[in-house]
Amino acid sequence: MDWRTVDADSAQRLRQLCMRMMVDRDMPRNVTISSIATSKRIPEVILNHLSLIAEELVKGAFRHGFPAGRGGRIRLSLDAWPSTWELTVDDSGTVEGRRGAGMGKVRHLVLSLGGALDLPRVIGGHRCVITIPKMPDFAEPLVHAAS
Asked: What is the pLDDT of residue 93?
């Protein structure tokens, strides 16, 4: 089976990730987490990587953005554009301490997909934008008749 034809439901996967993170006993109870996906169907191999990236970013936000019981929110969004998928993780936590080993893992995963990582400055929180290029649908190879 060709990996480009095995699609997964991105909205459902992000919801499951959010629910799993909320029931984790190490996560603060006064931080809410939500998700939205504008594109439901994404190749499963890409969605698996994006899920790992999102999980690492959410863990980092919980770990570093909400110290000493600070409350707030984390929001994941996944959008499809004509040539890319874009995962954005926003949180209302503190900005300090966001460059640790977890971000190294995120960078590695993003680069393995040929993508880009952007950390734009935002007021009152932190934002991470991951852009992954869509793979072209390769047609069957052309067969040239021998002359």
From this structure: 82
The contacts of residue 87 (CB under 8 Å, 6+ apart) are: 50, 53, 54, 76, 77, 78, 129, 130, 132
How far apart CA 52 and CA 18 sit, in angstroms, is: 12
Mean pLDDT over 57-68 rounds to: 81
In DSSP notation, the chain reads: --GGG-EEEHHHHHHHHHHHHHH-TTS-TTEEEEEEES--EEEHHHHHHHHHHHHHHHHHIIIIISGGG--EEEEEEEEE-SSEEEEEEEE-S--SS--SHHHHHHHHHHHHTT-EEE----TTSEEEEEEEEPPP-PPPPP-PPP-
Q: Is the pLDDT of residue 147 over 90?
A: no
Kindly state the average pLDDT of the residues 20-37: 76
Is residue 101 a contact partner of residue 71, using CB atoms and an 8 Å limit? no
pLDDT above 50 for 133: yes
